[in-house]
Amino acid sequence: FDDDQGFNSGAAYFFGLDAQAWVQKQKLTAADGSINDQFGWVVALHGDTAVVGARFDDNKGINSGSAYVYTRHEHKWRLQQHLIASDGELGNQYSWAIALGSDTLIIGAPFNSIKRPLSGSCYVYQRNGDSWSEKQKLTAGVELLAERYGTSIALEGNTLLIGACLDSPRAPLSSSPWAGATCVPF
Length: 186
Hints:
This protein has no helices and 12 strands.
């Protein structure tokens, strides 16, 4: 909710451990940041690569979302690529959650309605040199409304774990999307 580029535009802060204390090294804001983007809603770090999400960025419609990939060069973080879902649209909140591996990036869009209303999805990216490209879109395989697939993501090696905090076997497609829904921590 940092306001450097307008109300709730957002920011991300890099820290380094010097001796026994964490010291701020750099503050980032989106190059194209604007009011209510919420840049920094979620972050991920792996080696010399960092990803910062802006779930309310408006590049593909209001609150469609985007993510910014940074790489470290000579102790400074620089923007490498600005990612936007290929089929992004109004309200998806792409980059609600992010998981980053060495050459794999997963970005959650839990309000994506491509499969069913508010069912959610995750986008899989692969790094090739200095560029990230979208390789696959993942959705839940069940016929429920509003699962919010992609609200949380974990990646370890070749295993991916995706949370769908409103998935409920007691809420068939025709009933309320909130019936029996609970968020369960892993």
